[in-house]
């Protein structure tokens, strides 16, 4: 049994390059696969559990649900694991806990293991063998800002705002702040969070520059029309209520919390920015997976079973999941607040609750499979905003993605569940690790993970080939 990726990496990278050359792609949906490259092969993870007692970290968000359900419904125990779940104060504390070994694994931002591997912020060899969910975030504005833009929004026949709402409606407000000599501040949860990139994507699609990062800088405010700062998720509503920020991008239930507190209005959900976007991952150290391969496989099997339970029968188990998540040792928000986005609906304002069956997807659409193309999207956004300071070749994107995202480990766990009759064969994709080209972005741009540099060239706001960021602005051609 070996976890050395040298030969595996070479084969997958060559398959990706061959796929680009052929461009023989099939359907563009979330579970689409590609032709022209070899499918990913499952790792061989047979053996006895090496480490049965484990501590996993999480942040108080509804998308930690697979971990809570795996514990509460006995899926960890079924796999011979004794797991303790520990909430963490913020994403930095969680990341440090995984790197330092205090946590054996964690509910992580998709960008965290990627950034650590390339040495942005901190250097550590982390992997993501499983994606926890699709979608699940939203952008909320304060009541004050909402009132300033509300009259200009197009309305449907029911008199309610037409969604998705473009960030272009914010431009007059931002310009007014600038004329008054005040920065327009918004919050996100971490510099390499999905929330940061989604908020930046939304703003840029509406013609507002969210700012660039200089080399080694974690503020990202060079040339910014809107300044973005870090706030831990549970503190978002209070920070906005205090007037420190005018809005934020965060996961649930902290957008719904603003609605229930009467202090803000969610204006767009992240599936309206990028339909079926990958959100959180289960992250752990690479050396943990190498030292404890059977334990790693057992963890993944338990989490996959929890994901399946969460999406079973059209969400029939969601009410029970809401009750579990509302407990103080998990998310700790009122069940009513969690249910406002977790049960197939999403509330934008009192009286404006809309169907949102795909807002939280944990198992359907191959939500758990860690696609290389998902990792590459995060890397393109890091480059777009200057967190990756210099141009990289397409091959670099492929190699980096397959060093972090580990579908071979996912398949080892999922295929065993197929053998046991827990999953059906159709529940596990046959793919070389790349989705087909994805549409469903708010700006109409199609993302092809096989062509990262070409994708970056399509944006009006963002770094282009040859450009760098200095304290005085963007330089280069």
Q: How would you sum up this structure, described in words?
A:
There is one protein chain. The protein has 477 residues and is of the alpha/beta class. The protein folds into 2 domains: 6-133 and 278-344 and 358-439, 3-Layer(aba) Sandwich (D-Maltodextrin-Binding Protein, domain 2), CATH 3.40.190; 137-275 and 457-475, 3-Layer(aba) Sandwich (D-Maltodextrin-Binding Protein, domain 2). It has helices at residues 6-22, 65-72, 75-78, 91-100, 111-118, 143-150, 171-179, 194-205, 236-241, 254-261, 270-273, 286-291, 293-311, 318-325, 335-342, 372-384, 394-404, 407-419, 452-456; strands at residues 53-58, 82-87, 105-109, 126-131, 137-142, 185-188, 227-230, 247-251, 264-269, 280-285, 345-349, 352-355, 468-470, 473-475. A 5-stranded mixed β-sheet has the order 2-1-3-10-4, with helices on both faces. A 3-stranded antiparallel β-sheet has the order 8-5-9, sandwiched between helices. Strands 6-7 form a two-stranded parallel sheet. α1 packs across α17 (394-404) and α14 packs across α15 (335-342). It is globular and about 65 Å long. The protein starts with 5 loop residues before the first helix and ends with a strand. Mean pLDDT is 92; it is low at 1-36.
